[in-house]
UniProtKB/TrEMBL annotation:
It comes from Actinomadura spongiicola. This is TetR/AcrR family transcriptional regulator. GO terms for molecular function: DNA-binding transcription factor activity; transcription cis-regulatory region binding. Residues 11-71 form the HTH tetR-type domain. PROSITE patterns: HTH_TETR_2. Keywords: DNA-binding, Transcription, Transcription regulation.
Length: 236
């Protein structure tokens, strides 16, 4: 469908605003990303920017959605570069692409994963941030679903009722067609992967390690075993 010149100009301005916010984030830090600062970067007044975003929170959500989309695209590209590969090869490629993106974009990674999410956002499942976040999650979920269909991995049979109920609500909300026990295993894997990646990107272990690739690969090896997959080392 053709768009009007006015719509194209508006879309261009929206992109410019989000790019200005990203530049402020990467050069001056999270606190620098204010409505007035972003407005100055694009040559408009603070009040004028409200014609494009209702407030700071909506701007933050839009920028976060951009980062999620960029990260998901990098992971999909790495995964899909192995079209004839095993599920293990595709999943490991996506995980390695996530680390590569995070190391190359530490400010953006921190913005996505280490900033508190306001309750108003969590209560808005169709917000830009949450839609982009779910698309990112599907990079993993699609491969896990294929794995479960072809070769189910070991799962616990004694989950506490409270955990089981929370997982059931989560799977129903997102339409995940996996048993809650399988979702428990995969979320546990994600928590471990996320934890070690955060510690690396946020320099929490830089007093010990200057390069944590070995530890990340060790984590991937353990997660592959948990999912009943063969670990394949990264290409030389």
């Amino acid at each position: 469908m053709n768009t009007s010149r006015r719509d194209r100009l508006r879309d261009g301005t929206l992109t410019e605003i989000r790019e200005a916010a990203r530049t402020l984030l990467t050069t001056r830090g999270t606190a620098a990303v204010t409505i007035n600062a972003v407005a100055r970067e694009v040559g408009m007044s603070g009040p004028a920017l409200y014609h494009y975003f209702s407030g700071h929170q909506e701007l933050v959500q839009a920028v976060t959605a951009d980062f999620f989309a960029e990260l998901a695209a990098a992971m999909r590209a790495a995964r899909d570069a192995r079209p004839g590969g095993s599920i293990s090869a595709r999943l490991l490629a996506a995980c390695r692409a996530m680390r590569a993106w995070a190391i190359a974009h530490p400010a953006e990674f921190g913005w996505i994963f280490t900033s508190p999410v306001p309750s108003s956002v969590t209560r808005a499942p169709d917000s830009a941030r949450n839609l982009a976040g779910r698309d990112f999650e599907r990079v993993f979920q699609d491969e896990i679903a294929k794995l479960w269909e072809t070769r189910p991995f070991p799962v616990p049979d004694d989950l506490p009722p409270a955990i089981r109920e929370q997982l059931r609500a989560y799977t129903e909300k997102l339409g995940i067609e996996l048993p809650v026990e399988a979702v428990y295993v995969t979320t546990s894997c994600w928590i471990r992967l996320y934890g070690i990646l955060c510690m690396e990107v946020l320099n929490q272990l830089d007093y010990i390690y200057t390069d944590m690739e070995f530890l990340y690969e060790e984590c991937l090896r353990d997660l592959a075993a948990t999912l009943g997959l063969d670990y394949e080392p990264p290409p030389a």
